[in-house]
Amino acid sequence: MPLFSKNKFPVDGRVAVITGGSQGMGKSVAILLAQRGAHVAIIARNPAKLDSALEEIRAARRSAEQKVFLYSADLTRGGEAAAALAAVQAELGTPDIVWTCAGGTQPGYFKDYSSAALEREIGINYFTVMHTAHAALRLMTSAGATEDGRKRHIVFTSSVLAFYPIAGYNSYSPAKAAIRALADGLRQECLLYDIDVHACFPATIYSPGFEEEQKTKPELTKILEGSDEGQTPQQVAEECLKGLERGEALVTTTLMGSVIRGSAWGGSPKGFFDTLFAMVLVLVWSVVGRVVDGDVVKYKKKLEKEGKADGK
Ligand SMILES: NC(=O)C1=CN([C@@H]2O[C@H](COP(=O)(O)OP(=O)(O)OC[C@H]3O[C@@H](n4cnc5c(N)ncnc54)[C@H](OP(=O)(O)O)[C@@H]3O)[C@@H](O)[C@H]2O)C=CC1
Ligand SMILES: CCCCCCCCCCCCCCCC(=O)[C@@H](N)CO
Predict the structure, then answer these.
(1) pLDDT digit string (tens) for 275-287?
(2) Ligand 1 centre distance from Cα of residue 18 (Å)
(3) Coiled-coil intervals in this record (predicted)?
(4) Which of 71, 126, 164, 172 is labelled catalytic?
(5) Which of 5, 25, 246, 300 has the greatest number of CB atoms lying within 10 Å of its CB?
(6) Full set of structural domains in the chain with CATH
(7) Quick check: CB of 227 below 6 Å from ligand 2?
């Protein structure tokens, strides 16, 4: 292996926990890590979906020595997250990698949600991540350093919407932005413990969750995200892993994702080209932001012609 390509995210022989590992991106991440030699535990609510995913993960293993495990829990509750991770520790050992993929949204116009629905979206997209990270960090820190001296990792799954929130996702993007903030702050704090913290920022993933989204997604939102080609869950898992292997703190999975992130780096760790990108994009966005807002105004005028209020 060339000198400068040292893998910063080895998974071989390590214990990896994936929340939301029963379908979509989470299942693809679990399969990919099993193919690379990890012991894999998945956590989600629905036991039947967990069962069938675990069979696929078991079949993907490189060797029969690799252990697999599932645990059904609602991670919006702190107690269940702690119990789930304790069960993984008892079965497979202290987690070396905890990767949160649980999340999801029912897109819509903000005013149309009930207050309870808005709270549910924050629960699914932020509380699950917060509780999982909290429980993981407690286990990891009380277990002390790893035997082989390799770092442990906490990986979050956010969305490009954390950097550029668009109309129709306002129940969801704020939680994804909160994940980005947690990743940056916790990364700094975890320098104390030799634990790396990362966040991944996919754009459209053609997952079962995405199929559900399409049922309530406003036409305007479909127009705004129309330029995004989308990726399969497998592609997203592979791109995330590549970024993690390069040692990136914030990982994007497409060029468009890097472009959107380029305008929003703030104090997050970045490389040389990322810095150049950021300098250029601050200028580019003064045009792009206006163009995209212009699309919304165009859509409004179209609706007015048709005598409709907001496209519904
Ligand atoms: N699809 C997309 O276009 C994009 C998605 N993302 C993000 O990527 C991640 C994966 O998305 P996607 O592949 O679409 O996922 P899916 O919506 O297809 O699957 C979501 C997974 O999370 C689990 N889950 C949901 N709620 C909870 C909960 N309260 N406790 C425990 N597990 C839970 C689900 O299982 P169960 O229901 O049984 O609990 C399922 O395994 C999400 O965080 C999503 O927000 C980011 C960018 C784009
Ligand atoms: C120069 C810059 C050009 C930028 C143009 C703007 C394009 C916006 C694309 C937004 C894509 C939204 C993906 C949503 C992913 C997601 O998280 C949901 N599907 C929820 O799961």
Answers:
(1) 999 999 889 988 9
(2) 11
(3) none
(4) 172
(5) 25
(6) 3-254 (3.40.50.720)
(7) yes
